[in-house]
Write a structure and sequence with these properties.
By secondary structure, this protein is of the alpha/beta class. The protein contains 8 helices and 15 strands. The strands form 3 sheets. It has a 6-stranded mixed sheet, with no helix packed on it. The protein has a 5-stranded mixed sheet with strand order 6-8-10-12-13. About 10% of the residues have low confidence. Cell division inhibitor that blocks the formation of polar Z ring septums. Rapidly oscillates between the poles of the cell to destabilize FtsZ filaments that have formed before they mature into polar Z rings. Prevents FtsZ polymerization. Belongs to the MinC family. This is Probable septum site-determining protein MinC.
Amino acid sequence: MSDTATSGVKQGFQLKSASVSMTALELYYFDDGEFEDVLRDKISQAPGFFKDIPLIISLEKYQGLDSELDFFKIIGTCRRNNIHVIGVRGGTDDQRRLARGAALALLPGNGQRDRTHEAEQADEAEAAVVAAPTNAAGDPPPAKIISQPVRSGQQIHAPEGDLVILAPVQAGAEVLAAGNIHVYGPLRGRALAGIHGAESARIFCQSLEAELVSIAGHYKISEDLQDNGWKSAVQIQLRDDLLVVTPLDKA
């Protein structure tokens, strides 16, 4: 028996699994001045969404010619704009070494150059698959159903399946799901479907009035949405990396 258990003193902390919505910055090349200009432009489109968010730098499509990617400059620029870089996805061995030197977490990517890194984690990945929750029939997880309005400041999260909301989602609220999102009422807040990368996920709502919608990391803000299906029943899906809004009566 441990000394802690014997003395009756409660442990100072516990480690638990957590599922957090992440935004990825897909970097194609890096120019310090241009990077900050473009970042500020993006933030100005949805300042409330980007304030104090955790950010992953994705290098899976990086084509810069520089051998020494300066992560400290990227981190500093993001911090000046209230964005917190916490890790790097993908990249070459040299890039990942530099990211580690900048105290960033290393996440495996899906590109060819990350196959070696992923192979090193094969045992862990296999164990995770074995431990994944399933039912006897092997069906996907059941939908999470919310019957009350989602108020401003609330966040509703369905980390393993669809999210069904039988009431309005108010401005300032956020709903997230690994699968589809169904809102049987006005959608006025933020809705993020396919948060783990499921590009087949969709968003359905009875009245599109959203501050922001996102599928698998691709997003549109309210200004982009008002030209198509605004305040009407729609479905939103991803086609060729673009979010497409379709009236439900024409879906």
